[in-house]
């Protein structure tokens, strides 16, 4: 029956959601169970409660003896005339006259019925081929028309805050020429206010001189001819050129129409336990190069960090002990010189929150090892000793962050799609994975 067939079709269409992985899995996987249970219960109701309820709501009495008594209920033989009259009324309806010429040949002729079923099968296969031949894009949720866009910029580790700010100012100048932009707010060195998308993508953890974000507010939807997605496509080339000139990796982030994910395309590179993490990063760079060659794939990035050096002060415990200076005193002096120390708070009438008072050396006095070596540490006897006399500086390379998944080391490569369905790009990339 059509009811059973339709129920099974809906159940089968939702079962693939059981195999959705990643951050969308917790949102979509329950539907693979909830929908079949709901459809089975609906079918049970249609077979039991619906006929019973229809019988009691639609039943009526027929007059006995051909209709002499309006209120009586006749025998089955007496009810023949009213039933024939009702059948004739149905045959005179427009729906019956349209539907019967179509269905009667399929019911009365077996060859015609098989031809009809064959045509339905061919159309079913043809509809599936539309996706296989890329005539219909495969996307879980359509793009929404939001009133905001977010620009996320990542510079190499060690980039100065001044260089990051200079690039942001050039991007701001480019945005001022776009009539659809109502305003924007830039955040250099800190994260923008967190939303649900930023929570999932960990944007709230972004801090440092090499990160920046620009929150763009668009004019109302009725006052612009471009949707937010189309506007992002239009601005991408212009903004990417400005960001690349400043050495930044630019990402145009749109508010997702559904549950957010860390990225539209995520490649996970694993290796054997005896592989060094640099081997995984080298393989991740190969994957990144392949993604960058794919048309419609943008905002490609990976977890590899730019090489940078750090200076470590190694105290000479003998000299420090002679001057009665502890390692804690040396660390406190460097902390105050480089990061500053909180010494109090200032309360003013025009400030909602107390202003912190931080004591720190000026940038010109803490920009080199020689400057830091001249810092004087107070000994227990009261005399001052230069930091350079209490130890030596050693140059080291900053360690690469090592990521893990399921207790295995992994290197990630992230990418987005612009003007193209993600499924098509993933299929094309996986097609030459073994090459």
TrEMBL record:
Key word ATP-binding present: no
Coiled-coil zones: none
GO cellular component terms, A-Z: plasma membrane
Record keyword Transmembrane present: yes
Species name: marine sediment metagenome
InterPro entries: AcrB_DN_DC_subdom, Acrflvin-R
Protein name (record): Efflux RND transporter permease subunit
Taxonomic lineage of the native organism: unclassified sequences, metagenomes, ecological metagenomes
Record-annotated membrane-spanning stretches: 6-25, 32-54, 113-132
UniProt keywords, alphabetically: Membrane, Transmembrane, Transmembrane helix
SUPFAM superfamilies referenced in this protein's UniProt entry, alphabetically: Multidrug efflux transporter AcrB pore domain, PN1, PN2, PC1 and PC2 subdomains (SSF82693), Multidrug efflux transporter AcrB TolC docking domain, DN and DC subdomains (SSF82714), Multidrug efflux transporter AcrB transmembrane domain (SSF82866)
């Amino acid at each position: 029956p059509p009811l059973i067939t339709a129920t099974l079709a809906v159940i089968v269409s939702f079962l693939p959601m059981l195999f959705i992985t990643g951050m969308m899995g917790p949102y979509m996987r329950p539907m693979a169970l909830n929908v079949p249970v709901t459809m089975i219960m609906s079918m049970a109701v249609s077979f039991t409660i619906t006929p019973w309820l229809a019988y009691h709501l639609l039943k009526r009495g027929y007059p006995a003896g051909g209709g002499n008594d309006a209120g009586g209920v006749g025998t089955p033989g007496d009810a023949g005339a009213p039933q024939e009259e009702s059948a004739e009324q149905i045959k005179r309806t427009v729906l019956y006259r349209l539907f019967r010429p179509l269905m009667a040949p399929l019911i009365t002729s077996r060859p015609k019925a098989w031809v009809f079923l064959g045509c339905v099968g061919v159309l079913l296969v043809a509809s599936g081929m539309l996706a296989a031949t890329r005539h219909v894009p495969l996307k879980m949720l359509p793009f929404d028309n939001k009133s905001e866009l977010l620009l996320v910029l990542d510079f190499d580790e060690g980039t100065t805050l001044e260089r990051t700010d200079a690039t942001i100012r050039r991007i701001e100048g480019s945005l001022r020429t776009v009539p659809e932009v109502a305003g924007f707010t830039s955040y250099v060195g800190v994260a923008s206010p967190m939303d649900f998308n930023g929570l999932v993508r960990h944007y709230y953890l972004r801090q440092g001189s090499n990160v920046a974000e620009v929150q763009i507010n668009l004019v109302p939807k009725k006052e612009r001819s471009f949707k937010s997605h189309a506007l992002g496509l239009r601005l991408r080339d212009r903004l990417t050129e400005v960001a690349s000139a400043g050495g930044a990796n630019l990402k145009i982030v749109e508010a997702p129409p559904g549950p957010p994910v860390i990225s539209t395309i995520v490649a996970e590179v694993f290796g054997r336990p005896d592989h060094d993490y640099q081997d995984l990063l080298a393989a991740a760079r190969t994957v990144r190069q392949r993604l960058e060659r794919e048309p419609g794939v943008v905002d490609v990035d990976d977890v590899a960090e730019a090489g940078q050096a750090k200076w470590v002060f190694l105290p000479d415990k003998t000299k420090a002990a002679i001057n009665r200076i502890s390692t804690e005193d040396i660390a406190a002096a460097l902390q105050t010189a480089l990061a500053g120390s909180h010494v109090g708070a200032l309360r003013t009438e025009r400030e909602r929150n107390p202003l912190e008072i931080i004591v720190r050396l000026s940038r010109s006095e803490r920009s080199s090892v020689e400057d830091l070596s001249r810092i004087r540490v107070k000994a227990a006897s009261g005399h001052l000793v230069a930091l350079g006399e209490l130890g030596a500086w050693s140059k080291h390379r900053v360690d690469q962050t090592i990521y893990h998944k399921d207790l295995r080391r992994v290197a990630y490569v992230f990418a987005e799609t612009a003007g193209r369905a993600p499924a098509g790009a993933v299929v094309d990339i996986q097609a030459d994975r073994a090459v």
